[in-house]
Each structure stands twice: as structure tokens, then as C-alpha cells.
Amino acid sequence: MSIQSENPKVKVTRRVERHGKRRRLRQWWSSLQFPPIFGRFTSWLYDWWFPFSERSRAHYGYGGAKRQNRVAWLWHQLTHLVRRGFVASAFRTAKARWDDWWYPPVTDKSYQHSYHGPVRHHRLARYWRRLKRRAGRSFLSRGYDAVANRFYQWYYPSSNEKPLHPHYAHHRRSRLQLAWSSAKRRMQSSWLGRKYGEMAGKFYDWYFPLTDDSGAARPQHHRISRPAQFLRRNVRRFRRTRMGGKIGWVLDEADNIIFQVRSYLGLFPGAASGAGSGAGRRG
Questions:
Q1: Structural domain boundaries of the chain?
Q2: Is 253 helix (H, G, I), strand (E, B) or coil?
Q3: Of 64, 159, 168, 213, which one has the greatest count of Cβ atoms within 10 A?
Q4: Can you say how many angstroms the Cα of residue 190 is from the centroid of all Cα atoms in its chain?
């Protein structure tokens, strides 16, 4: 008995059949000469639509200008023809003549050897400046200037005092300021003004008594108001207590902040002694 072996048939699916058809189609397309022909045709069409020019060619290692299509090239040529035409040249000539007439050149000889020439003004500006000069030289203008000068000399009289330096003269003050200064001097020199000055001086000496900083490196006399002295005295007493010794650093920080703020603002110069005394007791 003989056993005959036969190869079993493999069932081909539709997906495999489609894949094989696509592969055979690609092989057939690659075997043809059409793709190189199509590539050469697209390259020729691109070079024809974007033609080379002298500006687009590279030179000395630098890339040339961007290639223009034929529509842009035709538009560029058309604009060149229009600019070189009779109408454009006539328009430019008329515009130049209009500019020379509307902005006439200045015939001043002082600008011949300078780097910048004079500024051209149009005819309306020239006529307005000429009218202003004529109005300034007229009888009314000269009369107004004379009256204004006399009024200025009367309202701001010159001082008879000689200045300390010849280049610096005294500032002129108006008659109202002079009258107010004269009234103030008369009030201060009167009996009521003298009494008020004496009382104000006594009150100032009482309210701001002199204090001697003998313990400082440079002993100086400062005037401190009585409320400030009262506050400092109570703060020193509070620091000597048990609670003041524990939270005394808070008062030192507050004194330093107040001193910095006053130094920045330029106020209360006598506060330096209080801040320094508080900072010295920090230990």
C-alpha cells in the first residue's frame, strides 16, 4: 500500500489579493519611463514660470534675489515703462516746478559754507512771517511795547541796593510784594509786634528747652519739645522694668525705623540722639 502525500491548498484571502495587486501595480509603474518624464516636465514648467535673472543668480557666495513669476515680472516691466513714459516724466517735472514755486529757495548767503542749508517754508508761512514783521514795526506795535515797558518798570521797580556780585542782580518784586513786606516790617516794629515777638520767643524757649548731650562723642545742644522729653523719660523708666527688659528690642527697632524715616525725609534732626540712645541700650 503506497501513501501519496499531496500539498494542501492554501486559501488566499481578499486582503492578500489586494496587497498583491498593489505591489504588481507599483512594479509596473516603476518599470515605465513616465515618472522621469513627469519630473523633467515639472522642472521645466517651474523654470519657465519663475525665470532666472541676473539679480536671482548667486555671486561671491551670497544667495541671489528671490525669483519672480512671469506675472510679477510683467508688472515690474510695465511699471518701468510707465515711469519712463512721457506722462510720468511730465508729471514729475510739473511736481518739481510746483515744489520750487510753493517752497521757494532761500537766497541767504550765510548757509553757503554750512553742512545744512536753510529750511524751506511755503508761501503762506512766508507771507505770515512778513505780515508779523510789518505789524511789529508799525506805530501801534511800537506804542504798545513802550506802554508795556513803562508799566513793567512801574509795577516791578528796580532795587537801589547794589548786588554782591556784578553778574547777579537782585530779583525784581512787584509793588504788591513790596507793600506786603513794608506792612510786615511795620507790624513787627510796632509795640504790638514787639510784644508778640517777645512772648513767642519765651514760649519757644519754654516749649523747646535746650538739652546738653554731654555723653555723646561730639557734645551738641539740641532743642527737644516737652512732650518728646516726657515720652523719652517714660520710655527709659519702662526699659528699667522687668517687662521692658524683655521687650526692649521692639522699642529699639521702632526707634531705628523712625530715625531712618526722619533722616530720609529730612525732618526732626533732634531725633538722632533718641535713636542712638535706644540703640546703645540694646545689649
A1: 204-280
A2: helix
A3: 213
A4: 56
